[in-house]
Task: structure prediction
Amino acid sequence: ADPAADEAKKLDSLPWVTEFPMPVTAKMMERGKERYRIYCSACHGLGGEGDGLVTLRAMDLQQGTWVKPASYHTENVRNLPIGRLYHTISNGVRKMPAYGPQIPPEDRWSIVLYLKALQKSQQIDANTIPEEEKRKLRDTK
Result:
């Protein structure tokens, strides 16, 4: 029996929270972005692809002990309920340590909000973006 697989099955069957327990605001999103960059981007990367600087260095060393973090943009991770993401930040998963002792609950929810925004940013159809917004994006340096 694989203890990790058994644990994953237990977690999959839980009734996870699907809505934020506080009002979602621009301030919360900004806080999530800030906290994500501090706590998460070193391993997960700024875009959430699992290509942060720590990950890149560990992969270069090729010591065989590093497990590359999952991309937030896989279908499996995109479909996780927000409560499950919050649980992962709080308690860790596989090689990822628990950040609950370091990150206050409100900041964990802010990180989850930002993570969901990161996911959505990769799922948008460029044809649905107004031309004015496309111009702004092209002109951004």
